[in-house]
Amino acid sequence: MSSKQKISKAFNATRSLGIPDGQIKPILKDLLKMYDGNWKLIEEDNYRTLVDAYFEHNESEGLEGNKGRLVEDKKSLIPLKRSRDGEQSNRASSITGSSGRKLIVRKDKISEVDLGHKTTNSSQGSQQGLVIRPSEMLSSVKPVSVVFPDKKALTNGNMGCKSHQKGSSSSQCARSLNTALFRDQCTSNSSKRSTSSEHVRPISRDQHNRKNTNSSLHHMHDLTKGAEKVKISWVNELGNESIPKFNYIPNNLIFQNASVNISLARISEDDCCSSCSGDCLLSSYPCACARETGGEFAYTREGLLKEEFLNQCMSMRCEPNKEHLFYCEDCPIERLKNGYKPDRCKGHLLRKFIKECWGKCGCDMQCGNRVVQRGISCKLQVYFTCEGKGWGLRTLKNLPKGSFVCEYVGEVLTNTELYDRNMQSTGNERHTYPVTLDADWGSEGVLEDDELLCLDATYYGNVARFINHRCSDANLIDIPVEVETPDRHYYHLAFFTSREVKALEELTWDYAIDFDDKDHPVKAFKCCCGSAFCRDAKKKHKKALP
C-alpha cells in the first residue's frame, strides 16, 4: 500500500470522529517522524495512537489559550471508546482554544512529567565551564565546573545546556497499550526470565510487575532538552512510569576535587597537527594525531571504526593476555574497600586509545578524525524494556559495525568521592553503574587521589546512562578517546557498535562486572541480560550443583 493510500485511510478513520483533515495532518506528520516512518503503531487499534496524540495536542493548546480554565460543553459529544476490559466509554469535556473552536478533551487524570531541574545557560566558547547552583542540585552534592572543549567549535553553535522542550506537552494523557512493535522481542526470552520487582537494574529505581494491569503509552519527544544535535525521545508502552529524575548534560562535569587540567600549553607540537587543513583523512599520509593508533587513523572516511582496530579492541576485552593487564602494588580500588588490609589488585586492562584532533590542530570540525567530539548523530530512543531490566536504549535505524553511538557522560569524581557518595546512599537510591577511568593507569605512574577518576551518571548524565548491561556478547564496546588533554587519567569513554545492529534492537554494553566481588562499593545487580555467556547465571548454576 502506498503512502498516499495509508494517509487516506488514516484521514477516513479520524473523520468518523469529527476531526478535520487539516488538524490531524500535522499530528500524523509528527508521529511518522517519531516512529521513523513506521505505520504499524499508528494503524493499530483503529489509529488509536493518532487519535490520542490529537487530543493531547489540543488539550495542551486549549489549556494555554484559556490559562487552565475548563469550559463544560453542554452539547452532546462523540465519546471515545477504550479497548480496556470492563471500562465504559470515556466522557468528554470541551476546551475553548485560542482560535475560538471547541476541542474535545478526555477527562483522564493528567500527570506532569519531570525530568529534573533546569540547567544553567553556558556561554558559547567558554573554557572555564559551568557552575551549578545549589538550588539546581538533585542531592546534597554540588558539582562546581564543567570539562569540555569549546562548545562553539565542537557543534558550530548548535549545542548547549539551555533547556527547551518544543513540541512536547508537559502533561501526558493516558493512552491504550501498543505493544505489537515489541512482541517478537518480548516473547523470545520472557518465558526464561522473571520480571519481578526483585531484579535490580542499573537505571530505574523501581521495578513493577505489570502483568494483567491496564497500562498506557507514555512518551516525550526529546529528553535531552535541546542539549544534543539530535532529538532523543523516550517511550513507555508497558505502563505509566516516567524515566528517573536526572539532569541531562552533553559533556562531563567535574564534581569537586578531580584534577583535570585542560590547556593548549599542555599539548606539545608532537601531539597535534597544526599544519593540517580540511580533513586529515584525505591527506596523502597520516598526521601526528594518527601516531597513537600505529600511524594510521582509527576511523574510515565514512566515520566508522576500522575493522582491524575494532577487532583488536574486542579481543583485548574478551580474552586479555597477561601483557594487557596492569597490577597495582597498592591498588586504590582495593584500598577503598578495606583500608586496613586491602586485597591484592585484580588487574586493570590496558586499553587501546583513539586520539582525535582538537583545538591546536589546523583541520576543520568536519575532519574525519573528530568523530566523538562532534557528538551524537544517530537516531536513538529510550524505552521501557519487557525483560525486567527497566529502561533501556535502542536505535531507530540500522547501525553498521563500528558506528559511534554516544559517549558515557557524567560527573567526574575521585575514587574517594565516589566511595563517600556510595556510603551515603541507601536502599535503591543508586540506579546507575559508575565507570572507573583506569584504561592507562599502568603508564601514569603513581597517581594521587585527585587523579584516580571515575564517571557517575546518577544525577548528571546523558543518554548512555540508560544502556543496559549484557555479559560478553553485547553489541556495544567502550573505547577510551583522547581529545582535549594528553593526561590519560582523564579521557572520553565512547561507545561503538561491535557488529551490525538492526533498527529497534536494544543497545547493550558489558560493564565488566565481577559478580563474585562482595566488597565492591556498588552492589552488583541481579543480571537479566539473557546471554548464553551470562556470568551471573553461571555463578547461580554452580551454587545449585550438589
UniProtKB/TrEMBL annotation:
Pfam families recorded:
SET, WIYLD
Q: What's a single GO CC term here?
A: nucleus
GO MF, one annotated term: histone methyltransferase activity
- Name where it mostly resides: nucleus
> InterPro entries of this UniProt entry?
Pre-SET_dom, SET_dom, SET_dom_sf, SUVR4/1/2, WIYLD_dom_sf, WIYLD_domain
Record domain SET: where: 378-512
Q: Where is this region: Disordered?
A: 80-99, 184-218
List all Polar residues biased stretches.
89-99
Spell out the Gene3D superfamilies in the cross-references.
Histone-lysine N methyltransferase , C-terminal domain-like, SET domain
Q: Per the record's keyword annotation, is Membrane included, yes or no?
A: no
- Can you give the residue ranges of the Pre-SET domain? 276-375
Question: Which keywords has UniProt assigned to this entry?
Answer: Chromosome, Metal-binding, Nucleus, Transferase, Zinc
Q: Which SMART domains match?
A: PreSET (SM00468), SET (SM00317)
Q: What subcellular locations does the record give? A: Chromosome; Nucleus
Compositionally biased region (Basic and acidic residues):
195-209
State what protein this is by name.
Answer: Histone-lysine N-methyltransferase SUVR4-like
Question: Which species expresses this protein natively?
Answer: Cucurbita moschata (Winter crookneck squash)
Name the gene. LOC111436130
